[in-house]
Amino acid sequence: MFLKITRYVSLTLLVIWMGVIFTFSGQEAEKSSSVSRGVVVKVVEIVYPDYEKLAEQEKNEVIQSFTMPIRKLAHFSEFFILGALALVFFATFEHLHKNLLIVLPFFIGVLYAISDEIHQVFVSGRACRFLDVLIDSSGVLLAVVIGFLINHKIRGAKR
Question: Domain map of the chain by residue range?
Fold first, then answer.
């Protein structure tokens, strides 16, 4: 019973999360950049000592230097969550071969990363970038590997 509930909840969360990613990718470049800038400013204010004391030009340079890494980390994180949710879903199938427990969530994550980038071609100011597919896929892979190891430890402990 617990596995069935977990299966339905994880599938629901996975589909919702795919919708969240789709929504972020559907933002026009100007809106996406504006949202990203707001996040970057908050991060910089936390991690950069004396940011508030800098001149406006220096503040802009600091923001510029943090923007790309934070945006790419956001890509990675979105797909890390996607990979984790996909793994939880597939882990509810007790008799699923352990190789498939890695392959299926990774395959779904990579396909979604590719479709996400293709989707962006149709959004004003956005583009399809192979680097983003690699970053997204890396997030999925890390989640799947960590989740697989945790799942393997849990299943091994039950024996």
Answer: 2-31+68-158
